[in-house]
Amino acid sequence: MIEITDSLDPKLWDKFVYEHPYGNIFQTASMANVYRQAKSYVPFSLAAIDPDDGEVLAILQASIISEMSGVAGSFTGRGVIMGGPLVKEGERGKEALSLLLKEYGSSVKSKVVYSQMRNIRDTSDIKETILSYGYEYDQHLDFLIDLDRDEAEIWSDISKSRRKGVNRAEKSGIMIKKVENDAELKASYDLIHQTYLNVKMPVADFSLFKAIYAEFVPKDMADFFIALQDDVPVGARITLNYKDLVYDWYAGSLADVPYVDEALVWNILNSNAGKYKVFDFGGAGHPDKPYGVREFKRRFGGQQVNFGRYKKVHGKLRNRMAEVGYGVYRRLK
User: Fold this and answer.
1) Which residues contact 268 (CB under 8 A, 6 or more apart)?
2) I want to staple 151 with a disulfide (CB 3.0 to 4.6 A). Which of 3, 174, 248, 273 is the partner?
3) What is the distance between the alpha carbons of residues 146 and 258, in angstroms, rounded to a whole number?
4) Could you list the pLDDT tens digit for every one of the 333 residues in the chain?
């Protein structure tokens, strides 16, 4: 017998995540606290346990994101399961995952248009179980850079054009520092927000960034970097740091200031060399679809991987209406 609960002790939850070989920051209880503080975000957390001994067999944590409330929310809501679910090895774990997916699906189907699992590892061990619950797999690339070496080795793997960009950024007076106050935090967000507007992509509310900063920076689980040129903010990059992984979360820069992105990425790689094992570039799009950022990331010398994503549409009509609405949004922007 396996029991499903939405009220697992946060300490037990985080112990399971930390000890799991694929444990990641997105599945922690701390991330649920972040979602509670962010506008348009609601955490949805489920655990499967053995009621006889209390052993945790699997967990699944999603963020339910909707810019609207009430009935309208069911036409804009989406469930995003970052980095999860996490499952104990073996048939017992797969059974637990099956029950979690069933409970999750029945709970959110009227609240979200679709659910998406954004993988940060190879999920072939649980792929069959996930597909059996109506999810479809699609390709999605990423680049992983080995940080478990000295900075000179990392530098040597970077393309000449990117190294040249880093050097030119330094000569142009671009300086990188960690965000230290509310003004710098807001300036960083403004740069990210404008960058997303420029490419007609939605970006989360400032409240999510404030919550991440408050929850994770004091624990050394996030870094907010800001680039300055003549004391003017010209770029920003945010990483989430957990166990052996540095995850490239959000980035933005002024379009008319060259080489700031190269400088920010190198600063992250340089400062984390030998401290963590892997830098995850946060995705590089579908291999068959144009994605300009992919080439920028590729030239930093990482290993290209294709962990893919899973998606389940909970309401085909609502999904179609949401797609039409998003198309209108992009044209208006």
Assistant:
1) 223, 225, 237, 239, 246, 248, 279
2) 273
3) 26
4) 899 999 999 999 999 999 999 999 999 999 999 999 999 999 999 999 999 999 999 999 999 998 755 444 445 689 999 998 999 999 999 999 999 999 999 999 888 999 999 999 999 999 999 999 999 999 999 999 999 999 999 999 999 999 999 999 999 999 999 999 999 999 999 999 999 999 888 899 999 999 999 999 999 999 999 999 999 999 999 999 999 999 999 999 999 999 999 999 999 999 999 999 999 999 999 999 988 899 999 999 999 999 999 999 987 665 565 554 545 444 555
Distance CA 124, CA 138 (A): 13
CATH fold match for the domains 3-140+308-332 and 142-305: yes
CATH of 3-140+308-332, one of 2.60.120.700, 3.40.630.30, 3.40.640.10, 3.40.50.1000: 3.40.630.30
The order of strands in the sheet holding 222-229 is 174-178, 222-229, 232-242, 245-253, 278-280, 141-146, 303-306
Which residues lie below 8 Å from residue 330, measured CB to CB, with a gap of 6+? 200
DSSP lists the bridge partners of residue 223 as 239
Rounded CA-CA distance 110/114 in Å is: 10
For residue 178, give the 3-state DSSP assignment: strand
- 124-140 residues labelled b (16+ CB within 10 A) or e (exposed): eebeebbeebebeeeeb
User: Which tokens sit at 4?
Assistant: 């499903």
What is the residue extent of each domain of the chain? 3-140+308-332, 142-305
Q: Encoding tokens for residue 220?
A: 């050394």
Q: Where are the alpha helices (DSSP H) in the chain?
A: 10-19, 29-37, 91-108, 127-131, 151-157, 160-171, 182-198, 206-216, 260-272, 292-298, 316-332
Q: Which of 130, 107, 148, 114 is nearest to 246 (CA)?
A: 148
What DSSP character marks residue 112?
-
